[in-house]
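UDP-N-acetylmuramoylalanine--D-glutamate ligase
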Amino acid sequence: MKKIAILGAGESGVGTAILALQKGYSVFVSDFGTIKDNYKEALTNAGICWEENGHTEAEILDADVVVKSPGIPDKAPIIKKLVDKGVKIISEIEFAYHFNSELSIAITGSNGKTTTTMLTYKLLKDGGLDIGIAGNIGDSYAGQVASNPEKCYVLELSSFQLDGIVEFRPNIAVLTNLSPDHLDRYDYKYSNYIDSKFRITMNQTAEDYFIYDYDDEEIQQWLKTHTIKAKALPFSLYKKLDEGAYVEDKNIVVTMNKETIVLPIEDLGIEGLHNVKNAMAATTIAQLKRIRKDKIRESLSDFQGVEHRLEKVLKVDNVQYINDSKATNINATFFALESMKTPTVWIVGGVDKGNDYHELMPLVREKVKSIVCLGLDNTKIRDAYQNVVESFVEVQTMNDAVKVAQSLAESGDAVLLSPACASFDLFENYEDRGRQFKDEVHNL
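Tokens:
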């Protein structure tokens, strides 16, 4: 009997354990931290051995294959020992792929991947397809494959998940864009991170499709020096394309296999240029999957967007409060600031992942009147913007951030939480940060 060790007992680890057990593996689950009660219960009920608050190395090093949580870095001592011993280490995505008979749709990118994934799922589901959604969203891919192995899944994938693939091959792959992110995991080399993102297409064949942002210079540069086998379908805001998606006369035009669909941008349920791009990518997929044009139009118009991504929370004293907690890098915040139509009090800060704040300088000068800095170490942000805005205030709780922002905002202004940083200094994750923001706004 093949032995599998699973490192990390979150959603993805527990789903993998259940699928592995079903496929006849001897399963051992180990988490260096504590395991949530609901996951402990699921493992115990399935008769799966598990441990928490540390790793029993002998047990793990004895495995034939190890599935590790995307959050565990390659530098972790247990991973180094497994590598030295030559044990195969893969991600949940790679493991589950081999038991999923229908090729998936996989979406990655520095920004926009959640919106594109959810919008794609909606277009295909509304269009009548039996479709699942997994990866970074919802229930684990492996857990769903255990119950529905024949379904097509729309997968939102991070670079960390792609680092753990070997043979995973999606029928349709999307790369929404590239901007420096998670560089601390890639030896602070942007090129390593870019290579990681492009792993999404490495196993694709001439029968598959690769959808990408034609306007992204880094993507274009990579494609000039590397060959991909999949059929390339770009999307662009600025260039008319023979095949792919582009903008013309305030319409999205998608042309493929001599068929064209035209969608007025004003009919989109979500605002901003970045969302036009997300809609182009999702519509291209819907076209490939033969969804009817009227269904695509209808679904695009009633899609309301994603929680924590430019989410309008409330107007208080004619000030609009906007939750963009999902903006954990410069590029995401760039799009948020670009979309602001009124003077803005900007709440920014957190764990810096190697940001260059000067990239935002023109937008800060044009749109931002005051900055509220929310983080344990705000040095880089202070150095960049302190002398550029009317007011610059540093705080360390969300309660203070919202109260200070309220005092700085006047009627007709907006308060934007768009941190451009990870959340782990003061919050559990970006969702926790976003929900705390919304709670404090509702308490004003």
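The first strand starts at residue 3 and ends at 7.
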